[in-house]
# Entry
Amino acid sequence: MKVLFIYPNINAQIGFNYGISYISGFLKKHGIEVHLLNINEKLGYPLDLERIKKDILVIRPDIIGFSVLTNQYKYALEIAGNIKGYLNVPVIFGGIHPTMDPLGTLSEKCVDYICVGEGEEAFLELLQKGDPRGVRNIGRKEGGGTVLEPLRPYTDITKLPFKDYEIFDFQRMIDAKDGWVGLTASRGCPFRCTYCLNHKIMGLYKDHGHLPRQYLRRHTVDEMIYEIEHLVSRYKGIRMFIFDDDIFTFDKKWLREFTEQYKRITDIGFVCNAHARVFDEETAESLKKAGCRIVKFGLESGSDRIRRDVLHRYMSNKDIAHAFDVADKAGLHTSAFVMVGLPHETRADIMETVELLARIQPGRFRWSLFFPFVGTKAYSIAERSGQIDFEKMRHLDNFTDETCMVLGDGVDLLVDKVKTMFCTFVNGYANIDKKYSELVKLVEEADEKTWQQEKDRFLKREDEINKEADEKGKAHYAVKYNPFMGVRSDWEDDSIPA
# Structure
């Protein structure tokens, strides 16, 4: 039995797919041969249907599985549709998009099966039976309609075999990402933000009799220490570990044990996600002593109304400011994540986000444009608002370059201005230098025509002011590492690319 996974990750950052790595390790433990085509132009594998065809015909798989993100869905369909023209094997779609939109995915001609939710045990059972009927988590076509089997209980991740790193040509990924290595110590999240998939997954499993409180699961500390030692001993050039857990710091007892052991085995720094409402001095000190370099917080918006009514992010600006103050006092570099272009967002809401960043002054901040992922509550909120351009939505393959939201002329214009010159907006509102404030005023006052005509001149002026600030040794934010990240200029550790 040969399984081929295809991971379309086009016009996107290089990503390690945890789902494929877990499933591949699980299948290999049961004697199944597994291959992967990791389609990403930054890794030397662009979307080339002829190359894909050639590679597939060499492998001759018995089944092909796609791991599909919503922004990559159109590419997955293009590849799968092409495959159906030269190879008669089942195609199964799994991952976030089929889980969020199972019936829509199954309606596609090139898709034979889907996997909803977690796929290790379901995929193995499907392969062993050779028949999708009765295999929980699997959806299929039958009699002109669709059948979605019930969901099995949450997977006990402590009983899964080691993740399969080799299938990803992992050394090449490390080199391509300048030593940046992602890890995950858990599955699930205790919060139910509207824009995230977690609330939908918890709801699905609850509908099938599985308790939401069982959704958040962790590997043991010993498992994570073993994994880190394995990676450090096997691969070269690892300079930073990035824990991609939704909330790495949530279980304080686990965190204390992990940080004590981590600092005994390596001096490689790490980055992790925290939540502003559950971040205190003890957590900050544990992270700092273990070698944490950056702690990241999802703020999403500086508007309490937007956080509460649209995003269901129940924290106050006071909570946020306190968390950043605690992290700063512990000597941790902080990162804030924000979005603009949200449903029902006004000019005032957007400026509240700018003002919050200017007030808390994180070590860095990242921004994105809101994208209404199908199946989320935020999608429903945006749909009911009548603010989605569905045609544009179908063509977007990321959420940093363009938005599919239409919020009104004045708001749309401000969204474009802020996402283009976010650092200057924050510099100006933080009163770092009056030249930033003067530039922000010019940008804010520009009408649509003036903004489009003068955008390049504004950006040139931004660069000039940044250079002057550098020469004066005045700390300020500037775009660094990627086009949607602002980093304080006094950050000196280039071992961290993201």
